[in-house]
Amino acid sequence: MNRYPTWLNLLVLLILVMGTLIAMPNLYGTVPAVQLAQADGNPFAEARVARVEQVLENAGITPEATFIQDGRVVVRFESTDDQGKAGELFRDAFSSDSNVAFTIAPKLPAWVRGFGLSPMSLGLDLRGGVYVLLEVDMDSAVESRLAAYEQDFAERLRDERIRSRVEINDSQINIRLQSAEDTEKAREIVSAADADLLIFDGADARSLRVRMSDVQIKARQDFAIEQNITTLRNRVDQLGVAEPLVQRQGVNRIVVQLPGVLDPNQLDEILTATATLEFRMVDTAGDSPGSRRYTGRGVPSQMLKREVVASGDQIINAESGFSEGQPAVFITLDSAGGERMLKNTQENLRKPMSTVFIETRRESVTLPDGSASYRTVKTEEIINTATINGIFKDRFVTTGLTPVEARDLALLLRAGALAAPVFKVEDRTIGPTLGQENIDRGFNAVRIGFLAVVVFMAIYYRGFGMIANLALFSNLIFIVALLSLIQASLTLPGIAGIVLTVGMAVDANVLIFERIREEITSGNTIQNSIHAGYEKAFSSITDANITTLIAAIVLFAFGTGPIKGFAVTLSLGIITSMFTAIVGTRTVVNLVFGGRRLEKLPI
Amino acid sequence: MRLIKDKPTIDFLSRGRRNIAVGISILVIIISLASMATRGLNLGIDFTGGILLEVKYPQAADLVAIRQNLAEAGFERNVVQEFGTSDDVLVRLPPQVGEDANAIRDTLFSVLSAGDPNVVLQRVELVSAQVGEELTEQGGLALIFALLMIFAYVMFRFQWKFAMGAVAALAHDVIVTIGFFSVTGISFDLSVVAAVLAVIGYSLNDTVVAFDRIRENFAKLRGVTPEESMNTSINEMLARTIITGVTTLVVLIALLLLGGESVAPFSIALIVGIIVGTYSSIYTASATALMLHVTPQDLMPPEVDPELIDDLP
User: Where in chain B are the domains?
Assistant: First the structure.
C-alpha cells in the first residue's frame, strides 16, 4: 500500500527538474547593458558583433558579454559607468543605422541562453519607468474625416462648375445648391466620391445632407486608434527604450509602458506630438519660385518646389506588399488627394517626387530669467525621393525598396501623423531607486514569511512538516518557472500574491496531515491512515482551491495594471500548490513511508 | 506537537452562544456601515483622480513648511504626510483642471525640492477624475460578480442553504474589512480592493472546508441534531483552521513589516480580513445555514421510491 508506480515517480521528478531548469535564469541577477537594434528592423548579422567589440576595444572598455539575441546586439557590462561610456560610443559609431537603447540584461551564461530561457520580466513598479494611459479623441477622428469629405466635395463640385455651399453642421455635411438639377448632379458626384456615404434630401429640393454610415464611423475610429498605436510605437522606438509596450485598452484608450529612466517632459512631447507628411516635386532645374532645400533623413537632401502635391492627412491607408515581384508600398489617398496626384503625374512623368516628413513638437526651454517655457519646433525631412514612372491618382505604388524598407515606409506613412489627438488620463512614473527598494522589500518579505512558515511546519508536523516544506519550496520554484515561461510582468502586488500563496499553500498539507492524525487516533493502521488522509482531504482541498481561484479570476478580469499581477501570481500559486501539496508530498511520503510496516509516523 | 487536544468539544453553536455571535456581528456591521455612510473612505487617487508624489528628502522633512509652500504655489487642497520614514513624504492633490500636466509637475517639484538637488522624486502618479470613476465602478462590479460566481459554485457543490451561509459570511467579511478602513481612515486604494477579493477567496476556502466536514458528519453521525453535528465538525476542523490562519497571518505580518509603505494598506486589509474571515466561517456561515433550518436530508441524494424498485422485474 501507498506505493506509486515507478513511472509516476519519474514523472514527478521530471516535472520538478523542468521547473527548476526554467526557473534557473532568475538566479543570475541582472547587469547593465546596451542594446543595438537595426533602425530598419532587419536582424543584425554576426559580423556586427565584431564591429561592436572593436569599438569597445579601441576605447579600452571590456564588456562582460556581447552577443546577438532576437536580431539585436546585446552588450552587457560590469558597471553602469562602462554602460554609459559605451552607449555614447555606440551612438557615435552606429547611429546612422541603429537605435541604441540602455537596458538591464540578465547575466545568463551562454548555455542557458542557448535554451532560449529568460527570467521573469519585472513590472514598472519594480524596475522603474513610466506608465501612461492615453485617451484618443474619437470625435475629432471622425470630424477630421468629415472635413476631408467637405473639402473634397467642394472641389469636385467646383470642377463640375456647379455653384454650391458645402459646410459641416452637427456631424453631417450640408450641401446647398442653386437648382434642383444641380442637386441631382451633386448627388451623383457625392456617391461617386464614396458610395458608402449616406445621402439624404435636405430641407428643400436645393440641398443635400451627407452622413458617414455607422460602419464608416466605426472603421474610421478603429483606423484612428490603430494608426495612433503605430505612430506611438514608432515614436517610442526613437526614445532608445528597450522593451516598450504600446497597447490598445478598451474602446478608445492606449497604454504606453516604458521601463527605465526617462524624462517625463520629453516623453510627453514625443507621445502627444502631431506629425504629418507632404509630397512635393523636386525642383530639378532649380528655377521654381519659392523652392527650398530640405534635408534628408538617411537620403540626400533636395530642392523642393513650393506647391504641395498631396499631404499626409489625405493618406487613407498605406500598406506594404509586392508589385510585379518587387517589394512595394501601396498608398491610398482620399479622392481630393487622388485628383491632384493624377493631374500632377500627368504633367510630371519621369520626374522625381519627394516625401517630406513634418513634425511639430513642443520643447521646453529655459528663458534668460531662468523660468521654464515652451516653444514649438517644426522639423521637415525628406524620407524618400522616387521618380514618377506612370500616371496614377488615389492609389499608387512605390517600388525599388527592400521588403523591410517597404514595410517601414508603409509604417512610417501610416505612422506619420496621429489620426486623432490624444490626451493623457493617467500617468504613473516610478523612479529607479524606488523600483529597487520595492524589489528588495518584496523579496525580503517572501524570504522571511517563507522561513517562518517552514520553521512552524517543521516543529508542528516534524518529518511530515519537512515534506510539506519541500513541497512549499518547489511550489515557489514552479511559480517562478511559470512566470518566466509566460513572461507575465512581476509587480509588487504580484510579489504580495506569492507571499499570500506561501501562507495558504500549506493549507492543503495541514488538511491532509490533520486527517492522517485523526485516522491514527481512531485506531486505523499507519498505511491505511496515510491513504485515507490523502483520500478524504482531497475534496475539501479541491473545493477550497477552486473557490479561491474564482476570486482570483474575477480579479484578473476586472483588474487593471498591477492588480492583474496579483491575480496572476495568486492563480498560478493556487494551481501549482495543488500539484506540490497533493501529488508532490504524496510521492515523497510514499517513497519514504509507503509499503512498509510502521509502528509510528513522524507527524 | 499539538496546539489543542485531540478531540476538542467546545460549544460554538448552541443557541445562546450563536445569538451572542450574531449580535456581535450585527453590531460590527452596523458600526461599519454607519462609518462608511458618515465618515466615508479615505479613497486614494486611484478612485478620486488627482496627483500623487512621493519625494525622498536627504533629511527629515518639514511637513508644515511643505504644506505652506504648496498652498502659496496655489495648491491649497493638499495632503502631505510621512510615508514610512520621516525622509519620505507623500503629497496628494485633487485633479488640477485645465492646466498643462508638465507645467504642474515642474512647479510641484520645484516647490517640493526648494532648490535642493538632493531631493529625489520617487514616484509621480496622475489620474484623471474620469479614470477614477471607472476604476471605482470596476472595483464594485468585481466584488458583486465574485460573490455571485461563488454563490453559484457553492450551490452546485452543496445546496442553497449552504450557499446562503457562505455568501452571508463573505458579505460580512467584506463589510467589516471595508468598515475597518473607514473607521481607521487608512488609505483605500486599488490594492485594497484586490486584498478584499483575496479575503473573499480565503474566507470561502475556510467556509467550504467546514461545510465539507459538516456534509461528511451529517451522513456519519446519526441521531444527533444538525446543530450538534455542525458543532462537532467545527471542533474537528479547529486545529486546521487555526494553523492555516496562523501561517497566513505570519507571512502577511512579514509583508506588512518588510514590504514597505505602499503595500501596507494591502497587508492590513488581508490581516483584518483573515481574522474576520476565520471567525465568520465558524459563526456567520454555520449560523446562517442553521437559521435556514438546514437538515441532513438537504445534502442527501434524493431517495429512490421503494415501490418503484418493487415494480422492477
Answer: 15-42+131-299, 50-127
Output the nine-digit C-alpha cell for A552. Answer: 482570483
Find the closest chain A residue to B149 by CA distance. Answer: A550
Q: Residues A81, A152: one domain?
A: no
Q: What is the pLDDT of residues A156-196, one digit of tens each?
A: 888 888 888 888 888 888 888 888 888 888 888 888 888 88
What is the model's pLDDT at position B282?
82
Residue B125: list chain A partners with CB under 8 A.
426-429
Which residue blocks in B5-128 are alpha helix, DSSP H?
15-38, 45-48, 63-72, 101-113
Residue A558 in domain: yes
Is residue A530 in some structural domain? Answer: yes
Asked whether B205 and A548 are in contact (CB, 8 A), the reply is yes
User: What is the spatial distance between Cα A517 and Cα A16, in angstroms, rounded to a whole number?
Assistant: 28
Task: Judge whether A580 and A502 are in contact, CB under 8 Å.
Answer: no
Residues of A in contact with B92 (CB under 8 A): none
pLDDT band at residue A459, thresholds of 50, 70 and 90?
A: very high
Distance CA A502, CA B248 (A): 8
CB contact set of B264 (below 8 Å; sequence gap of 6+): B186, B256
Task: Specify the number of domains making up chain A.
Answer: 3
A471 and A577 inside one domain = yes
CB atoms within 10 A of CB A518: 18
Same domain, A439 and A571: yes
Query: Is the Cβ of B34 closer than 8 Å to some Cβ of chain A?
Result: no
Residue A203 in domain: yes
Listing DSSP states for A518-535 in one string gives HHHHTT--HHHHHHHHHH
Helix extents (H) in A348-431: 403-415
Distance of CA B148 to the CA centre of its chain: 17
* B202–chain A nearest CA distance, Å: 6
Shared domain for A574 and A444, answered yes or no, is yes
Q: Tell me, what's the pLDDT at A106? A: 86
- Both A448 and A520 in one domain: the answer is yes
Q: Summarize pLDDT for A350-401 with one digit per residue, the tens.
A: 889 888 876 655 454 556 665 544 455 667 888 778 888 888 878 877 655 5
Which CATH number covers residue A484?
Answer: 1.20.1640.10
Q: Report which residue type is found at A488.
A: A
| Cα–Cα distance measured from residue A202 to residue A172, given in angstroms and rounded to the nearest whole number | 11
User: Do residue A502 and residue B251 have CB atoms under 8 angstroms apart?
Assistant: yes
- Which residues span the domain enclosing A501? 6-24+431-593
pLDDT average, residue stretch A57-74: 88
Calpha distance A55→A59 (Å, rounded): 7
Task: Please state the rounded mean pLDDT for residues B54-58.
Answer: 89
Q: Which CATH number among 1.10.10.10, 1.20.1640.10, 1.10.3720.10, 3.30.300.30 corresponds to the domain B15-42+131-299?
A: 1.20.1640.10
Domain B50-127 bears CATH identifier 3.40.630.10: no
Within 8 A of B236 by CB-CB distance, chain A residues are 518
Per-residue confidence band for A406, with pLDDT thresholds at 50, 70 and 90: low
In this model, does residue A533 exceed pLDDT 60?
Answer: yes
Looking up residue A86, the CATH number of its domain turns out to be 3.30.70.260
Interface confidence (ipTM) of the complex: 0.85
Nearest to A503 among B153, B213, B248 (CB): B248
Residue A315 domain-assigned (yes or no):
no
pLDDT in tens, A285-336: 877 777 889 988 778 888 998 777 887 667 777 777 787 776 777 888 888 8
For B166, name the nearest residue in chain A, comparing CA atoms only: A547
Residues A70, A12, single domain; the answer is: no
* Weakest mean pLDDT among A39-53, A79-93, A177-191, A266-280: A266-280
- From the CA of B43, how many Å to the nearest CA of chain A? 17
Closest to B122 in 3D by CA, of A346, A433, A47, A467? A433
- Looking at the fold, whether A72 and A175 belong to one and the same domain comes out as no
